[in-house]
Design brief:
Blueprint lengths: L1 H6 L10 H21 L3 E2 L1 H4 L1 E8 L5 H10 L6 E5 L1 E9 L9 H15 L4 E9 L1 H29 L2 H24 L3 E2 L1 H31 L5 H33 L5 H28 L22
Parallel strand pairs: 1-6
Antiparallel strand pairs: 2-4, 2-5, 3-4
Helix pairs in contact: 2-7, 4-5, 6-7, 6-8, 7-8, 7-10, 8-9, 8-10, 9-10
Length: 316
């Protein structure tokens, strides 16, 4: 009955395309790594340090008018964006944009420049200052958070499944992280703490997809008596494909809505998750499982251990 049920699954040779997928993944990873080495990242103020000022206007205001008022006041290179509505504006000043005075004096000068150019009243709502030292520490701690999460996943999967599965899952997760941050580097999209949080979320999402596939592979290795390793893995992927597609599409609908309607504040977060969901779904099939096949997984590796004394002769 079980083998008949297996025959009804999608008859797609996923592992037959693993070499072509490896070439595509390798090319993408090379481009991403070169971009990170040559172009670097457009780090946000969370990592570089600087001043964040939130102001409110009586009437909807164009960002070009705010930028012009800041430049007239001597603040060149400021990042300006709407925050929630067209009356709320978020201003980011990078370190060195104005070195005179303390952060309080800096915010007062910004407020005066905006008030002088505005038709109505301007409300100074929030001022935050992030020093360069803090930004550097956040960069280091964020990198360590990603590294420790990968090490923890390696240990968890090795204990739950088998060491080949652990290596395959970590290879897929490293692939996903490099692709996501590589795209941010290639297109010079602002990389801040929200994007780093999205990268950690991508690791969790991609791992969940991979564990679902690995769980079915382990189950089928023990129940399917016939068939090669690649045939069993193809059947396992086919059985979980509908679940994977439905989950990914549902998640993408929410993320696209956040990206289109959520504004600039969470645009980087939602974009990183959109890329991560797509790449994570792909890597669960063509990176994690392909790595397991290339490492020489066999049926005997997943057979349950024999109980002690099971084959011993029973004596009266």
């Amino acid at each position: 009955m079980r083998n008949k049920a297996m025959a009804k699954t999608l008859n797609i040779d996923f592992m037959g395309m693993r070499r072509a997928a490896a070439i595509v993944s390798g090319a993408v990873l090379v481009i991403a790594l070169l971009s990170m080495l040559l172009r670097g990242f457009d780090f946000g103020l969370d990592f570089t340090g600087g001043t964040v000022i939130e102001v409110g206007y009586e009437t909807p205001t164009e960002l070009a008018e705010v930028t012009g008022a800041l430049e007239a006041g001597g603040f060149v290179g400021a990042t300006v964006q709407h925050f929630g509505s067209r009356q709320d504006v978020l201003i980011r000043l990078a370190p060195g944009s104005d070195d005179e005075g303390t952060s309080a004096q800096l915010s007062d000068r910004v407020f005066q420049a905006l008030s002088a150019a505005a038709a109505g009243e301007v409300d100074l709502r929030r001022v935050e200052f992030v020093g360069p030292q803090v930004g550097e520490e956040l960069r280091e701690q964020g990198g360590l958070a990603v590294l420790f999460s990968l090490i923890g996943i390696l240990i968890y999967v090795a204990l739950r499944f088998e060491w080949r599965f652990a290596v395959g899952s970590v290879v897929a997760l490293v692939h996903d992280v490099i692709v996501v941050i590589g795209i941010f580097s290639l297109f010079q999209i602002s990389f801040d703490l929200t994007v780093l949080a999205a990268v950690l979320a991508v690791i969790g999402y991609s791992l969940n997809d991979t564990i679902v596939v690995f769980d079915r592979v382990r189950e089928n290795f023990r129940k399917m008596r016939k068939g090669s390793v690649t045939e069993i893995i193809n059947a396992s992927i086919g059985q979980t494909l509908s679940r994977t597609v439905v989950t990914s599409c549902t998640t993408l609908l929410v993320l696209v809505a956040l990206y289109m309607l959520g504004g600039e504040v969470i645009s980087g977060f939602s974009l990183a998750l959109i890329i991560g969901v797509v790449v994570g779904t792909y890597s669960s099939i063509y990176v994690a499982t392909a790595a397991v096949v290339w490492m020489g997984l066999s049926k005997t590796d997943l057979l349950p251990p024999e109980k002690e004394g099971a084959g011993a002769e029973v004596r009266p």
